[in-house]
Amino acid sequence: MIEGVLKIPLRQIKDDRGKVMHMLRATDDHFQKFGEVYFSWINPNVIKGWQKHLEMTLNYAVPVGKIKLVLYDDREISKTYKQINEYILNQDDYYLLSIPPHIWYGFQSIGNQAAMIVNCATIPHDPNEVRRMDLSEKKIPYNWEIEHD
Ligand SMILES: Cc1cn([C@H]2C[C@H](O)[C@@H](COP(=O)(O)OP(=O)(O)O[C@H]3O[C@@H](C)C(=O)[C@@H](O)[C@H]3O)O2)c(=O)[nH]c1=O
């Protein structure tokens, strides 16, 4: 697992009326600070990325649909520099993924419905601290076409 990435299982409290899905509390050990919450909807099979933040820590959960999230560690001082991780996030495998800055990420909506990522970010959106790279960039040796386990 890429250094500094946290995968925190989340509770879903179900009853016959529906359910409550936890995400993040200010009292959680891994809570840093609140910046902004926003939702990114992704249409079926669409891939978004590559992106990385210079300052923001991302706190992701996927309450709707199914997402394959791919991370690439771009921190030369990191023990996991250049490591690639894959995650599947959905209601059946429901967890918070906390991603530090300087890690490239891309995500694909898999399954036949649109998916939604919730990001409870540590800073408000600032386009100046976001970097983007085309999915075809060879810097990240990842093939989105291959079904990875
Ligand atoms: C993320 C964001 C985007 N925008 C604008 C910028 C742009 O015009 C449009 C689309 O932005 P993006 O291409 O960055 O959106 P998107 O491709 O959905 O990617 C976003 O996915 C979520 C999960 C994140 O974590 C964000 O950091 C970002 O990576 O929306 C805001 O106004 N506020 C925001 O907080």
Automatic annotation (TrEMBL):
Alphabetical list of Gene3D superfamilies matching this protein: Jelly Rolls
GO CC, one annotated term: cytosol
Record field: catalytic activity: dTDP-4-dehydro-6-deoxy-alpha-D-glucose = dTDP-4-dehydro-beta-L-rhamnose
Database matches in InterPro entries: RmlC-like, RmlC-like_jellyroll, RmlC_Cupin_sf
Source organism superkingdom: Bacteria
GO biological process: polysaccharide biosynthetic process
Any GO molecular function: dTDP-4-dehydrorhamnose 3,5-epimerase activity
Enzyme Commission number, as recorded: 5.1.3.13
Pfam families associated with the record: dTDP_sugar_isom
Top-level EC class: isomerase
Biological role stated in the UniProt entry: Catalyzes the epimerization of the C3' and C5'positions of dTDP-6-deoxy-D-xylo-4-hexulose, forming dTDP-6-deoxy-L-lyxo-4-hexulose.
Name of the protein in its database record: dTDP-4-dehydrorhamnose 3,5-epimerase
